[in-house]
Amino acid sequence: MSRHHIRKKTGFLLSACASLLIISACQTTQEQTLQQSREARIDSALGRAVASTEARGHSSQSLPFLEQSYKRNSDDENAAIAYAAALRRADQLSRASIVLLPFANSADSTSKAKSEYAAIQLAQGNYTSAEDFAQKAIIQDEKNFEAYHYLGIALDARSMHKEAERSFRKGLELWEGDPTTIMNNLALNLTSQGYLDEAATILQKAQSISPDRVELERNLRIVNALRESGGYAAPKPSAKPTAFGPQPQ
User: Which residues contact residue 115 at a Cβ distance below 8 angstroms, ignoring those fewer than 6 apart?
Assistant: First the structure.
């Protein structure tokens, strides 16, 4: 082979290598930009929580009071939602389902009724039904952040981790009040997919706003242990999402 051909071939190979390096660098930059964007959204949710003057999910209304209110006007959707949510928190799931089902199935019901019924279905382990009602709630109100959270849990329970991740991220983007519950479940979802570093970062940020929540400390220990061992097995998001976090009003 002539020197001219050798120089030409060598030049082509160098050019090809340079192109590959440029492509690799572009991909790395895009991944870094995406990660920064995701972290910014989490920081935004934390900021909204810190700035919030309303403590969501800490109702002083007792179950007997809500029951009386519901019995006085069983056709009132808001009374039914409040009573059903209280029953769910008290683990009276069958009764909660019976109370809210007529409203959840009604064409005239609100997105909130459908999302609360999705939460009840989650607590009962009915993940397909929970997914269906959470989807309906989102279609009716695309800013229903709790519905996105419930949808994420239902999808995760069915091993649809990527779809669940998208739902958790959307819910977190819209979240109002303390977001540590959905952050915890997003972190568990990411751990299931092997994204251990991001999962640890999210749990650390959640701890910064709710340092007394033992679930966060426990899950962070699990994630850090997995990072050290190289394992990817992770606990599932709780099927009772509001046992740890904001309660429906």
Answer: 133, 134, 137, 144, 146, 147, 150, 248
Name the region of 55 (left: φ>0; alpha: ψ -120 to 50; beta: rest). Answer: beta
**Domains contained in the chain, CATH given:** 63-243 (1.25.40.10)
Residues 227 and 241: their CA atoms lie apart, in Å, by 26
172 touches 41 (CB < 8 A): yes
- Could you tell me the end-to-end alpha-carbon distance of the chain, in angstroms, rounded to an integer? 81
- Which token pair is 179? 């977001």
CB proximity list for 221: less than 8 A, separation 6 or greater: none
Q: Which residues of 169-189 are buried (b: 16+ CB within 10 A; e: fewer)?
A: bbbbbbbebbbbbbbbbbbbb
Orientation of helix 93-104 relative to helix 111-123, angle to 10°: 150
Q: What is the mean pLDDT for each group of 10 consecutive residues in the chain (249 residues)? A: 52 52 62 75 62 42 88 94 96 98 95 98 98 98 98 97 98 96 97 96 95 95 92 55 38
DSSP state string for 206-241: HHHH-TT-HHHHHHHHHHHHHHHHT----PPPPSSG
Angle at which helices 3-51 and 180-192 cross, to 10°: 150
Residue 152 near residue 164, CB atoms below 8 Å = yes
Long-range contacts of 30-39 (CB under 8 A, 24+ apart): 35/198, 38/169, 38/198, 39/201
